[in-house]
Amino acid sequence: MLKKFFIFLILIVIIGGIYAFKLYQDISTPNVKIQDSPLLYVNTESTLDDVLKSLMNENQLIDTSSFLWVAQLMKFKNPKPGRYRLKADMSNRSLISLLRSGKQEPLSLTFNNMRTIEELSGYYGHMLESDSIAFINYFTSKEALDKSGLDKENILSVFIPNTYEVYWNTSPQNLFAKLFSENEKFWNSERMAQLETLNLSKDEVYTLASIVQKETNLNAEKPTIAGVYLNRLKRGQLLQADPTVVFATGDFGIRRVLNKHIIIDSPYNTYKYEGLPPGPIFMPDVSSIDAVLNPEQHSYLYFCASPDNSGKHQFAKTLIEHNRNANKYRNWLNQRNIYK
Q: Cα separation of 157 and 162, whole Å?
């Protein structure tokens, strides 16, 4: 009888050891493999089943049943949304702990070269959880406009091109709040002091900078071009900025602004309407904004592209001088059969 008891006890110990080893394996041994991407996206409304499907679709789990068993053991039901970076040696416990903690991997978003708030919203909709409609709806909402003191035409001026670190599931409202805060930091005491000398608002500087941005790719020329437009504004002259006409047409492939373009009836047509357009025509670089804040002091009222494909411009103080420069440039375009 005693012998049978010892045999039974040994069997219990063996079974217990096997169970303990299996438990250890399920909890602590690696159960994640990296295929095409080490990233796991968990949507805001995702359940544990949704997470499991994502892991399976991306072939990121070695053993599904052990993951579910450990999730049950750890009473894990509600994953926190986010963008998570997985590691190939992660165990079920470490994976579940990560999803429970919400310690997601941030995104570095770099934006520039946007023409409209709709285009910018499309970029965010592609990079973040919310879709582009959600971003455009909030960016043009009464709440956002009231917060910024802007309107739908110039709301783009809130967004200063740079690289910003955000989380994938950042809502449109929280993203706007973050970038509005960054905008306020950008307009530091030095820039605000420069602003006061121009008799322009921040959004007007941004709008003028957007024109400068589209006029030249050469940073060295930006303060000179900014000076030309500021001289025209002071004199009450039409800006006659070709990039505003291109924006008004909506045909961004135009290489040569013609008479048929400058008669378009649009508030963005600065050949037709005095002063600045209602809002920016492009997202200007910081260099363009600072060029407007620090314009070159000169007497130029005109400029024209140089006929040498250098990207440089020829500046003039008088209309007669400008017409000579313009004729040279038109002839240069004609020789290359550029008529539109």
A: 13
